[in-house]
Design goal:
Keywords: Signal
Strand content: 35-45%
Protein name: Exo-alpha-sialidase
Distance between the termini: 41 Å
Largest sheet: 5 strands, antiparallel
InterPro entries: Sialidase_sf (IPR036278), WD40/YVTN_repeat-like_dom_sf (IPR015943)
Radius of gyration: 22 Å
Helix content: under 10%
Organism: Amycolatopsis taiwanensis
Number of helices: 4
Oligomer: single chain
Strand order of the largest sheet: 2-7-6-5-4
Amino acid sequence: MRRRTVLAVFASSLLAVPGLAAAATSDGPVTVDAPYVKANGRLITADDAISVCGTNLRQQNEPSVAIDPKNPAVVVAGSNDYCSVERAGGTWAGYYRSTDSGRTWTNSLLPGYPTDNSPEGQASPLHAKGITNAGDPVQAWDNDGRLFYMGNAFNRAKPQNASVWVATYDQDGAHYVGTVLVSSGTPALSGKFNDKTSIEVDRGASSRFAGNVYVAWSVFQGSGNNEIMFARSTDHGATFSHPVKISTGSMDNQYADIAVNSDGTVNVVWRQFESNRGHQQDAVMFVRSTDGGATFSPARQAVAGFDTFDAADNPRDAAAAEEAHDQAFENADGPESEASEGGARDCGSGPLACVSGYTFFRHDTQPRVTADPKGDPKTLYLVYDAVKPSTEVPSTSSYNSAPVASDGTLMVGQGATYFSKSVDGGSTWSSPVPISDVNSGHQFFPDTNADGGYLYAVWSDSRNDPCYSVQSPPGNCAAVDQFGFHTASPGGGLDAYGAVSTNGGASWTVSRLSTQSHQPNYEMFGDRGVPFQGDYNYVSNVGSFAYRVWTDNRQVVPGVDPRSEGGQGFDVRQCRTPATGPDTCPNEGGLDQDIFGAAAG
């Protein structure tokens, strides 16, 4: 067992400070433009990083959300929060709490960031290790008002000190208890990188393991044989078991997700990537545990034979693109490198431009699984995004979003959110069907959650994009400028959509969640050269009440990049003198990417 490094020595309460909580509507910002508070609920201006958070209008992405089952008026959310980059030099895990069902929010950061001068922050093992970045946040409640908040932490330069962490908050999320390190790695090409975390707590109505905390994540190996790891806590997050590999027999694995049935059965799914080395196909893999996460069944396929919705292109200059991505990662100005071996998963301008002339963020097919803690102990619900086979056609450019044909032809198609169900504990699964089968728009980043007979789903959707085409990424038009770059779709083109089912997924009521479309391809990363939307959306519900969150660019201030050829509509507000100099006005709205949310029920 790994003993908690931080004990509840210091009392702290994340309280709503008068005047700091900004009102949210049924569709409104979770990350509000107001000063952040410390873990103890007070503003301390001597803290160099948090003193500018909420007012420097920096990016947030990859949101998570969780509704307190003990007190459903309490909703907590998290994200990769870039507000700390300006003063602390790295991104950190944001912690956002609402006590009025998501109408108003108080924003903070997980204690332990580099400039955190609070007793809680100074005692954090992340602070002790000199960690400068923490993100990929996910959250889950137990039935007694304890919140467990999980993510990754690492440095972008040596010493890299990568770690998987879990923080505990009690008193319905108002009081930070401490943080424990679950696993460590080395985020380098020749080492191990922990990524794509998942957490769930056993809230099963008839479970003998109720209260157990389960975590899973990907370990990216330098060898390329990426693994899914698992650990558990049987003492409310005070300690965690030694991590074990649960993806034995499967190579190139990512995007783990956990669901716990009402009887305490633990289920984990993830995506297995197609691999010539492993002679394996793209598939949703599945394991289960009937002894509280102590042991697991062998990994096997739950769903296979689908066509993945993975964006890909070719950089105009592969070496320059790789260097630009690496530099962005090191400078806390973007995700890990997405250009290698002549291919790219995201495209922008300058050294990050691609042959097709499209501008787009990365996205991959991902599975999500859920179970109703009050429902049938054998039923599981699964969603994932994939290409509708009937829409697949050869690509007219170097951009492709569907699997490459056997003869090497690049293919594109329409992305959709698929649903499948098991009523026998995962032994068999129903034939996957789209939740919302429409003729226009790409769907991706799905999530799902079940509780009290209500099944909710959320995803990103470009059905309202006036330039939609299977040949184009979301937010791009077919028209090109004189430099061969495609122009931005008017009005942005991307929305959040959701659905609810009260009959176990037999039918769904679909609704648009965002009241305004946004442009997902604003180039806010890589020195204003490439877009990034994070890697997921999130939904939580307690009975009929649900809250859905997504990354949203509607408040970004557009501009013109003086270094770019032409003006395609993807540039953001920036100031450069000379044109090749640094951006001297990064706090004037050009980076104002936010987390938005919408309630239901």
